[in-house]
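In response to reviewer comment 3 from the previous cycle, which asked for concrete evidence that the modeling workflow produces usable outputs, we include below a single protein chain processed end to end. The sequence was submitted unchanged, and the resulting structure tokens are shown without manual editing.
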Amino acid sequence: MSAEWQTQGAESWKITLPCTRAESEELAGDVPAIAGLEPQPVLMTSEPDPDQPDAWQLDVYLEQKPDAALIELLRGLVPSAAGVAPVIERIEDQDWVTISQAWLEPIQAGRFHVHTAAHAGNAPADAIAFHIEASRAFGTGHHETTTGCLMMLDQIERAGGAFINIADIGTGTGLLAFAARTLWPHARIIASDIDPISIDVTAENMAANDIPADAIALVAADGMDDPALVAAAPYDLIIANILAGPLIELAPSFARASAPGATIILAGLLASQADDVLAAFAQHRFVESQRVVRGEWPTLALVQQA
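The workflow returned the following structure tokens.
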């Protein structure tokens, strides 16, 4: 994203294309394909319909009328939209860099306050603040699933929950692992993600939040399939903000990696998918203990019965 956007006397145009969630995450960081453009476009992605978690939208803002070559370059950023005609329109001149950051207003979830650099220093005095920039990984705290997980962690700790060995599977930006570390500072914590980029982003975010590099073990892994995750088990708390399908598939491996009476926090599923997810974990004696609902996105806390 361009650090400067000259608007005085500029001509603003907007190009809109559909994209996938994965493409959206790729476009949240530096995009080499547009690095050499002058002036640089401003890229904004959004999730128009929470009921369709993989159907995202790319809006590109330009200060000049796009030519055919630029349109094709931008279409190349979202291969899933091949064959879809972009919507191109002339719009009112504005500071699109500032506007593009508007959706990243700080969020408050229980005791947690998540902000970007633009809002540093504005956290309530009694809040647990984390600095998380929009990046190449999912989990800035602005999606309902991440907010729900933060609220669930806060509620469990307030109710007396205590854990000594925690795994955050599908960590994204690392935010949930950071929250768990703050609530249970003496716990051993490991965070993993199937995407190695997320692990790099988590390490960057640890440094940005003054978290020692050895405070949280980081692993690039598909589910629980990694020697470090296996060796660190059994866990008394597993956090997994992924999607319903992978959560169902991971139920057996989560059960094998759990200590007796363990708690599992599950998110990334729609309300219509909750029963199927609960049924998969019920086969391993996990029952729902509490639920946080944010729109169509429930966060489930399950406890393993004896």
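The chain has two domains: 12-100, 103-304. We consider this sufficient to address the reviewer's concern, and the full set will be provided in the supplementary archive.
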